[in-house]
Please model this.
Amino acid sequence: MFLTAKYPRAPQCFACIRQIFGTEAQLPRSPFRTQVRGKKKVRLPTTINVKLIKDIRGYGRKGSIVPVAPGRMRNIWHPSKRAEYMTAAQLKTMPDLVVERDFAFGLEQSPEGQAKEDESSPVVEVKLLSPQRTTQLISAYVPEILEFYRQPIATPEPEKPKSSRRPSRTAASSAAEDLVAASEPAPVSMSKSEAIYGSVSTADIVDSIQVILSLEGVAAGDTEAARVVLSAEDVKIVQEERTAIGEEVDRIKRTGDFPIDITVKGGEAVRRTVRVLAEK
Model:
């Protein structure tokens, strides 16, 4: 009976009904519009007042009452008997009490006390070796060739096409020559290089040199060899052939012989060779 020409169908929401009736007083209240307020959460105190049993640096002297986080008191101070809890009744008996933390307590030192502390703990000075002496030790104890073993990356060899023709006399003679040449021992050549898993970096070379200096120095009774200090920046791989094939500057990624220069700041370069061999 509420339908008119203006509203050909029944209203679908309360807003449409308000437009029809023009008032909100006679409309039923929706339960979904009722706002329900929950119970307010009680905020816990961020600090509590405790009495110090011992002197604590940055808080105060023994007997002082200072504010502290509840977690610090529960987990650290109370188990170690450094402070005790103060009840509300105890605090009421002290109306003139000033609860304050002394941030500067224990941080100020007198010049006399500081001087005594410096005398009781002498500073040990370690003298570094001169660049010239470091270069002499490297030249004396580091061998000419440093060997590293890495696992090679296997590459399948291409299969040779089989020929269906019968070998002629010239082919047979050349095959005989090949058999004679194969029976002779072939010279070992380090020019053939293979890709390897991982790499040999300048840091690896420095670690190897440090170990060699320590062992050789102890064997020779020279304690200065173990005091040689090197870094990865002191070792440079000579870039004669490696730059052309686009290899990295500070690491070797194939087998073969690679010259390196060991240069300490202020000293002369020492040339050595890094040999990367295939791990069997």
